[in-house]
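thought: fold this chain, then report.
action: predict
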Amino acid sequence: MFDRMIEMFQDGGTFMYPILLVFVFAMAIAFERLFYVTFRANLNATAFMAQIQKLIMANNIDRAIKLCNAEPHAALPRVVKAGLTRANLAEKDIENAVDEATLEVGPMISKRTGYLGMLANVATLIGLLGTIWGLVMAFEAVAKASAEMKQTLLAQGISVAMYTTAGGLMAAIPTMVLHSIVQNQSNRILDDVDQYGLKTVNLLTARRRGTLDQSKRPSRRDPRRRRSPLNRGGARRRGAPGNHPRASVVGPQGPHLPTSRSRAHAQASHRRRRGPEPGSHHEPGDDPDPLPAHVRAVREPRGHRLHAPRPSRSK
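observation:
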């Protein structure tokens, strides 16, 4: 395979050298950027910001700055450190410091990344130019060369055309792939810088205002609060015992509400069982039960109505 590539490079002609030069430059930039955004400028942003948040909430700014100094080449610690060093200043000063650090870090992350796309296009175009040059050589051989040399020059021109096209594509394809990887990694770091830089500003501002502990307090409608024992089983069914504020007695038919009619009927029944009081007398035709007739008709079964004794007719 390697021998075949060397042979193709030799048969490709003059245009293979600029293609090779472009490929070398592209690979150098791609691997340097890939190493920087993967190992030097990158870190676990979520874990790092969790530690910074704990230190800020504990009012331990000095230790947070030391934690940022432990990663001097990473992008996010530099931005966070810029805000921590001005933690005791006004909110506008903290925000300006974080914005300034973000603007300084951005070009360092995306530096030379744009050249990769340009070099991939240049390699492709050089291969296309070599293809056109090879076809021109082939046509000149057919038009001007002698009969003995036509076949040789025609094959040589077609070889230059095909090999330069292949060489340009072989240089452009890996360059474009590495460009996409580096660009995606750089965008992810810049997104983390923007997100956690703003979070640092908010934390330091809340610390200065003294409102950091409010986030720990449960809200009025916090679902973690214990419910009342009366409501733990959910809403009571309509008609269940104790659901009505006037319910006092629960019978087999449900709650019995003490109404005025039932109280009057109970008093009348008690007087009938007890009998007439001493010294009391009733006139003929008087009803000993003071309960109204319409109440007795409702509360007592038909056929068992209580009537006053009819006076006997005197003979």
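thought: worth noting. The chain has ten helices and two strands.
final: tokens above.
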